[in-house]
Amino acid sequence: MIRFESDYLEGALPEVMEALQRTNLEQTPGYGEDPHCENAARLIREKCAAPEAKVHFLVGGTQANFTVIAAALRPHQAVIAAETGHIAAHETGAVEATGHKVIALPSPDGKLRAEQISACVEAHWADATHEHQPQPAMVYISQPTENGTVYSLAELEAISAACREKGLILFVDGARLGAALACSDVGLPDLARLTDVFYIGGTKLGALFGEAVVITAPALAKDFRYIIKQRGGMFAKGRLLGVMFETLMTDGLYERTGEREVALALKLRAAFEEKGWPLLYDSPSNQQFPIVPDAALEKLAAKYSFSDTLRTDSAHRAVRFCTSWATRPENVDELIADIKAL
Predict the structure, then answer these.
(1) I need a labelling partner for 194 at 20 to 30 A (CA). Which of 47, 99, 271, 275 fits?
(2) Residue 76, Cβ neighbours under 10 Å: how many?
């Protein structure tokens, strides 16, 4: 079976594994207070052009999401997200379990619009019974979205302005940020400038595991390590996270890895379009969503794995093909050849 259903099916980049092996017998302090975490944080601050930012390493995206949200919001406050956003659709109520409601707004492509955010907040305060409802206090977006779409710099600037006008915290989930950096005009310095907190994903871009949370708003940084510990996210062998991000942030490895997986995904996209299979979303990232006849999917499923997304009619389904840091070009070429032969 040649697998395309996700981008975290393999272990880690060879460079990451070599670094872990090379440093394996080092003795360092625990809980992220080691030289590797310190150096990785320095490299991230440099890439973000944010010398005052605080950087914390957590083991996964769900932990990063609910820890950031729990730390940022007061007990009566809620977070706004797209209805397809990861915290709304794929985290088993992890945010709600911290006591904070997710206000899910409709989105045809996975992205929120600035005007939606403003309207949501205005509607809350205009309601005479607003004290009986969760108060919107944060906006959560992901770059790329669950649908593979990406925010442009102009879109992110508009959302940032809306959040600042309405007094909202802006949080960007960057679980697949490496792919977004390769296919959008939003860079790390833009994220640092326009958001209050975001994270750089490692799990889905060549690390064994791990996300780097970057906090640029001083008010959010206060006592954040207490919240990490309370929420079960303080990793005793934190050095491992530092070593991996130290490696990813050196010599352009993170950026090159994202560029590679996006290039392979776009090669697949071209094959889908050439075959006459429309795309459910206009995704420039490593996630592609072709709408495929059931008969063709049945034949492909004998050899390839992919994720089911939704049925579009009685004879077609939209599915997701996802490339990763480890996707082999020859496997992409083999899939393309088999598509052409259908």
Answers:
(1) 99
(2) 13
Nearest to 333 by CA among 283, 267, 276, 234: 267
- Print pLDDT tens along the chain (342 aa): 999 999 999 999 999 999 999 999 999 999 999 999 999 999 999 999 999 999 999 999 999 999 999 999 999 999 999 999 999 999 999 999 999 999 999 999 999 999 999 999 999 999 999 999 999 999 999 999 999 999 999 999 999 999 999 999 999 999 999 999 999 999 999 999 999 999 999 999 999 999 999 999 999 999 999 999 999 999 999 999 999 999 999 999 999 999 999 999 999 999 999 999 999 999 999 999 999 999 999 999 999 999 999 999 999 999 999 999 999 999 999 999 999 999
Per CATH, the number for 2-7+253-341 is: 3.90.1150.10
Q: Whole-prediction pTM value? A: 0.96
Q: If residue 253 lies in a helix (H) or strand (E), which one and from where to where? A: helix 253-275
- Per DSSP, the residues of 62-124 read HHHHHHHHHHHS-TTEEEEEETTSHHHHSSTTHHHHTT--EEEE--SSS---HHHHHHHHHHH
Domain ranges in the chain with CATH number 3.90.1150.10: 2-7+253-341
DSSP H or E run through 330 = helix 329-341
Q: Using CA atoms, how far apart are residues 214 and 44, in angstroms rounded to an integer?
A: 8
Given the DSSP bridges, would you call strands 307-313 and 316-322 parallel, antiparallel or unpaired? antiparallel
Helix (H, G, I), strand (E, B) or coil at 54: strand
Say which DSSP state 134 is in: P
Phi-psi category of residue 260: left, alpha or beta, with phi > 0 → left and psi -120 to 50 → alpha:
alpha
Domain with CATH 3.40.640.10 in the chain: 14-248
